Amino acid sequence: MTNPQVALGPRTREQRLADTLAMLRTPARDAWVATASVAADGTAAPYLVPLSLAWIDDRVVLALDATSRTGRSLLASGTARLSLGGTRDVVMIDAVLERSVRVVEAPEELAEGYAAQADWDPRPGGEHDLYLVLRPRRVQAWREVDELAGRVLMRDGAWL
């Protein structure tokens, strides 16, 4: 089966940016979050997990247990790669950890913003739960091969 969007041809940069921001602002949006750490034997230990996200003030906000593998890796490395959408309408985000905030100490606007968009509220959770605020450094978006050439929408933290 072919993607019906292909018949329309490649999107303009402006349309890709608008579509990307619409995807990021979608309520109850989940993303695949990839992190990596160093295993006990010195080899790379990549990890991939689906998490709910919120797009707040041009930042990706995740909520998770700081003691989880993803939490530990992200706190240690300060970097993550996120993927939204399917293989025929994907947004890839390379991001850096800007700050972490314990859920129980989070400002109301962060907690309420996350709960409203992510469609769940981590505040009744455990003592190790954190909001991780990630600053996008690079954003790519494409649907098919005809959009690969212009897929970079953000470079070095600035929209192009």
Q: How is this structure best described in words?
A:
It comes from Krasilnikoviella flava. This is Pyridoxamine 5'-phosphate oxidase. This protein is of the alpha+beta class and 160 residues long. The chain has a single domain, classed as Electron Transport, Fmn-binding Protein, Chain A (Pnp Oxidase, Chain A, Roll), CATH 2.30.110. 21% of the residues lie in helices and 44% in strands. It is built from 3 helices and 8 strands, in the order H-E-E-E-H-E-E-H-E-E-E. Strands 1-2-3-6-5-4 form a 6-stranded antiparallel barrel. It is globular. The model has no long low-confidence stretch (mean pLDDT 93).
Summarize the structure.
The chain is an alpha+beta fold and 160 residues long.
